Amino acid sequence: MAHKKGVGSSRNGRDSGPKYLGVKRFGGELVTAGSVLVRQRGTKFHAGRNVRRAADDTLFTIIAGRVKFEHKNKKRYQVSVYPVTG
Fold first, then answer.
1. Which of 6, 15, 38, 86 is the 20 to 30 Å CA partner of 72?
2. Torsion sign, CA atoms 35, 80, 62, 67
């Protein structure tokens, strides 16, 4: 037999909120300077041209332009932003 009372509700109630991770701007989209491109934990995507990595591994752009996801090497993807010409 159980020797503890069923006091579920007072011991429950600890759950962290959602972190809203993932790709925020997709390939081909036009972005402004400072736009968040990817929120991530670790470096699933690496920073390419005109993109910087924040302390929490978020990727953001430093110029206005068009987003491009490209291969960095065989294993890794990088995100770059190229200025729109024309």
1. 86
2. negative
- What pLDDT, on a 0 to 100 scale, did the predictor assign at position 14? 84
- C-alpha 24/C-alpha 51 separation (Å) is 14
Task: Convert the pLDDT of each residue in 45-73 to its tens digit.
Answer: 999 999 999 999 999 999 999 999 999 99
Q: Which helix (H) or strand (E) holds 45?
A: strand 45-47
HEC sequence for 6-39 = CCHHHHCCCCCCCCCCEECCCCCCEECCCCEEEE
Strands 77-82 and 45-47: parallel
Contacts of 65 (CB under 8 A, 6+ apart): 30, 31, 50, 81, 82, 83, 84
pTM of the model: 0.82
Instruction: Provide the token pair at 57.
Output: 């591994």
